[in-house]
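Hi,

I'm pasting everything inline rather than attaching a file, because the server keeps stripping attachments. The sequence lines come first, and each chain or strand is labelled.
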Amino acid sequence: MKNLRSHITGYSTYAIILVFLLVLTALSVVVTGYHLGAFSVGIALLIASVKVATVISYFMHLRSENMFLKVAVSGVFILFGLVIIITFFDYLFR
Amino acid sequence: MTDHIVHTEHIDRETGKLGMWIFLFTEMFLFGGLFLVYAVMRVKYVDDFHIAAHDLNTFIGTLNTVFLLTSSMTVAMAITAIQKNERNLVLFLIAVTLLLAALFMLNKYIEWSHEFKNHIYPGSKVLKNLPHGQLLFFGLYFMMTGLHALHVFVGMILLTINLVKVKTGSVNHEYYLLLENSGLYWHLVDLIWIFLFPLLYLVT
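And the predicted assembly:
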């Protein structure tokens, strides 16, 4: 039965991931503190996206899941991205 | 015979997780809709959003981010612990997660109390007299953080059920799908906050 278990992630891996996420959080607070206008929103969202990708692949174990689930999760994010792009096309070029 | 049973359990676990992920997709689009409204309104009322966001406490927001990220780690560790059959460690890690969730909610309470004291709450006269963009910002702020806090609360209930079930032994190192799926739900709560935090607290 044991051989059917998925790969067990070590405690230290999770601790390293947490440190990485906390560093990114501190970075986004510092960067947006410089008031770079629209630029700082872009950076903050970029950092948030890296954090989300890290949480999904490590904490939610997507990296050790099957291809179907990987494609499905990526698909949902791509779909949401398209919804945002299409909405803004409508708003900006109406 | 034994092989057959093992095979069935294996499939059950995979499907159970797939079902949870599909549910999480619907949750992503529930918040996604709000993010979309936020994005459009923010572009329309750039200055109002900046002024209104100044009212939020970045320190409390950052602290809550730390609480949620750490709690996500403890839940992930709890799954490792149950796979290794370290029952007491599982109980400890779930308890720590619940404590961090409670601290998050306490912070949210302090934050909202502060807004309410300044007569900023949905439908208040002060809010109605603010420029339209600021009114929209606070409307979205209360809706998004409120809906998120509701998810934190539901996550706490799920984790408490897990705590009891691990204690009684019905969630164990052979069968822990409930803990895995509750963990996935908890991570989703974390994911949403990761986007909410820069959009609401760091836009000033």
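Residues 5 and 22 of chain A are 30 Å apart (CA to CA).

If the labels don't parse on your end, tell me and I'll reformat.
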